[in-house]
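DOMAIN: structural biology
WANTED: fold as tokens
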Amino acid sequence: MISQTYVSRREASLGFVRNRNIVRHSKRSLGSISQIVIVGMLTLVFGLIYVVEGTKATSFDYTISAVESEITEMTVRRDDLAVEKARLTSIAAAKNSTVAANMQDATVTGYATE
């Protein structure tokens, strides 16, 4: 099959024509060194982003760990206060009870000897 190309009369003449440039532009491409430098810079940038995100996650982990230890301390303190409340409540209930009011104070009458 024969391919046909259509050429206008202006293109057929090789002379200069008004309002037409006769400059041929060559395609520019990057050299191998430029490509290596660009790939290296992209690798460096992505590596820095990875490191920054990793340190953010570690920072959040330390913050969460500190809050969890504070929660644990508060829970232990709450349990201690609950025991203290129960002790004080039982002492107050014993002082105010009628059975305790009718009891005599304990005295030491003597020691057992062999």
The mean pLDDT is 81. The chain has three helices and no strands. Residues 30-95 form one domain.
